[in-house]
Design a protein that fits this description.
Layout (H helix, E strand, L loop, with lengths): L2 H13 L7 E6 L5 E4 L2 E6 L15 H10 L9 E6 L27 H11 L4 E6 L17 H19 L5 E2 L9 H13 L6 E7 L4 H7 L1 H6 L2 E5 L7 H5 L3 E8 L5 H16 L5 E5 L18 E4 L4 E3 L2 H10 L7 E3 L3 E2 L5 E6 L5 E6 L21 E7 L8 E8 L8 E10 L4 E6 L3 E6 L21 E4 L15 E4 L2 E5 L9 E5 L15 E5 L7 E9 L6 E8 L10 E8 L3 E7 L5 E6 L7 E9 L2 E6 L2 E8 L7 E6 L5 E10 L1
Parallel strand pairs: 1-17, 3-4, 3-10, 4-5, 5-6, 6-7, 7-8, 8-9, 9-10
Antiparallel strand pairs: 2-13, 11-12, 13-15, 14-15, 15-16, 16-21, 17-20, 18-19, 18-21, 22-36, 23-26, 24-25, 25-36, 26-35, 27-32, 27-36, 28-29, 28-35, 29-30, 30-31, 32-33, 33-34
Helix pairs in contact: 2-3, 4-5, 9-10
Bound molecules: 2-acetamido-2-deoxy-beta-D-glucopyranose (NAG) (7 copies).
Length: 666
Amino acid sequence: MDRRVSAAAVLCCFYLSLECCSCHTYVLNDKEGLGRVFDGIGGLSGGGATSRLLVSYAEPYRSQILDYLFKPNFGASLHILKVEIGGDAQTTDGTEPSHMHYENDENYFRGYEWWLMKEAKKRNPNITLIGLPWAFPGWVGHGKNWPYDYPDITAAYVVNWILGAKQYHDLDIQYVGIWNERNFDSKYIKLLRYTLDKNGLEWVRIIASDNLWEPIALFLLNDSDLSSAVDVIGAHYPGTTTVKDALKTQKKLWSSEDYSTFNDEVGGGCWARILNQNYVNGLMTATISWNLVASYYEDLPFGRDGLMTAQEPWSGNYVVEAPIWITAHTTQFTQPGWTYLQTVGHLAQGGSYVALTDGKGNLTVVIETMTHDQSVCIRPPLPPFNVTSQNATFQLQGSFASIKELQVWRSQFNVKTKKPSFFENITPLKLLDGSFTLNLAEDEVYTLTTITTGQKGCYPDPPPSARFPNVYKDDFRVENPPFSEAPHFADQTGVFEYYINLTDPGPHIFTFRQVLTQRPVTWVSDADQTISVIGDYQWQNLTVTCDVFMETIKAGGVFIAARVDKGGQSVRSAKGVFFWVFADGTYKVTNDLAGKTVLAEGQSGTRAYGWHTLSLTVKGQYASGLLNGYLLWKNAVVLTPKNGWAAIGTRSFELAQFDNFAVVAE
Ligand SMILES: *[C@@H]1O[C@H](CO)[C@@H](O)[C@H](O)[C@H]1NC(C)=O
Ligand SMILES: *[C@@H]1O[C@H](CO)[C@@H](O)[C@H](O)[C@H]1NC(C)=O
Ligand SMILES: *[C@@H]1O[C@H](CO)[C@@H](O)[C@H](O)[C@H]1NC(C)=O
Ligand SMILES: *[C@@H]1O[C@H](CO)[C@@H](O)[C@H](O)[C@H]1NC(C)=O
Ligand SMILES: *[C@@H]1O[C@H](CO)[C@@H](O)[C@H](O)[C@H]1NC(C)=O
Ligand SMILES: *[C@@H]1O[C@H](CO)[C@@H](O)[C@H](O)[C@H]1NC(C)=O
Ligand SMILES: *[C@@H]1O[C@H](CO)[C@@H](O)[C@H](O)[C@H]1NC(C)=O
């Protein structure tokens, strides 16, 4: 026998009977009052572009994915959907379009977050919706990378988004944040509260500051006006703990962004521990996963850090990962508005338990015994913990003393002899005098509940996984595009949208246009160029062809590219093979997006306000380029990168159009 277990057993047997080794009794009771009100478990779409590929799934797969996420009593049954208020800038895995690219511009149909919120609400009319900006269009900051110099402009911009949600989509945004993981400004927060109220949005609550517990907690304590403006302290990756000042504010405490872990079984284990221990250790009453669904190219930063994976719209393949079922353990048996009992805590041999009630006699208990190495879990890592198998006896008292039977749902990770199992409905427990004992092994999650409506939803297996097609074309000829973006293009700096030019004589009425004309108030280091990537990151040998149209005289420039090796917050240092033409009549071939490593250059005769056809072929170590069907340059030597995405883009934040995009890869 393991030394630690036998030591614990001796200790335990001293207090209890001889048969009961390594056991402990936990009382679940509401006699002394209850704990905090539960606000729900959620997922975050955005920060940024994390749902980009989801929208392009064909039916029925797209609806199936949405059901696994949002449909009550089916899968994750999420209580909360938080989305990015698109700000036109790179926010981790891409850019999301703003509702106001320019000061005099308003459009509440861009991007896919509106659609996602409506799909979520269709499935769960009670879902809580949250909006948060990561970035802002450049005009909001008057050209400075700072949104608080003109707080009235920033507040009006954010309030417009909330009003637009209601007016155009009948969506009630219940909570709004300040500026994701960046500085807050007390004056701005108060002005945001004032602007919300002035627009009849008194019921919209403010979360601050989507960063650490401090300094916001201290500011709330010493500024009563600020305190009355803010309803929730939202902390990111709190590692399950909070701080004294945050508790002193008496505000709701939320983990408004958490998880961010590769979504295999280990990730599922991290999530199970977070969901329980955020309340046990930190009294947090809501936890939101970054991200909702991994629907972005896996080679972008934080690939597969979502509750499930849906990154292949071209094949229809998706994967319902462990975190979906771990979420279900809590979400299917509780609702926002339920209340935690005060009797929650750690198990004697490691792990934790929480209990919640609807106040009408229903009880849900969630137990986890996760051993997974904390170093793979979250930032910052949790303190060390040890878990061993144990017998745990729960004694129900108070309103729960007369409960006779509990439904049992179990997940088992790390099972040595058989496959892990998730969210199994096993034989109900019969209670004797309100008491029951569980033999808990390592790496298990149990839900014990009076709620009988739980279900493990399922659909037939989706189509098998497949690589991005090697021959791909888009002429952007869509009369009423359901989304502003063309399928599979993932903007990494700038925003690319469908465009219709009705005065065009024919061939280029329908195009794809880069629409930003100014650098946004950024969240990370966007490139100075704009770029949208597409395809298979493993592509090596391929031909990319595209018609291009510059709209900036003399200074304008556009490119097509292959083997682009970086996106997300590293987009500035992207390398690849970039074939540029400029409105001053020249061309260039560079090994990087920044345009510093020149492989070839010369005259092209290209100009603004005329269409040109570019074609780039890369094979092995050599690249060549055609302009309007004629060879312009050849034998440019490309040693690295060896592979990467195809891409289109512009020299600066300038208008430009693209048409008849095509890739033929080997
Ligand atoms: C929404 O909430 C109301 C009130 O709490 C409840 O009666 C109703 O069943 C809920 N609807 C769904 C679909 O969960
Ligand atoms: C509150 O405390 C912070 C941090 O010490 C300080 O910067 C701020 O000025 C204080 N505000 C008020 C209203 O006292
Ligand atoms: C529990 O909740 C269900 C609805 O899910 C309700 O019908 C029942 O009355 C509640 N109370 C108890 C003690 O089960
Ligand atoms: C966990 O176990 C390791 C090795 O068995 C030990 O060094 C460590 O102190 C234990 N941690 C706790 C919190 O008990
Ligand atoms: C749990 O109790 C059972 C008997 O009910 C016993 O066989 C087992 O060894 C106990 N497990 C632990 C870890 O104490
Ligand atoms: C639209 O098409 C007309 C006719 O070809 C052209 O002159 C004009 O520049 C185009 N405008 C834009 C914005 O593409
Ligand atoms: C790309 O082409 C080079 C040169 O022909 C060849 O060595 C390499 O294997 C090709 N790569 C792929 C993935 O086909």
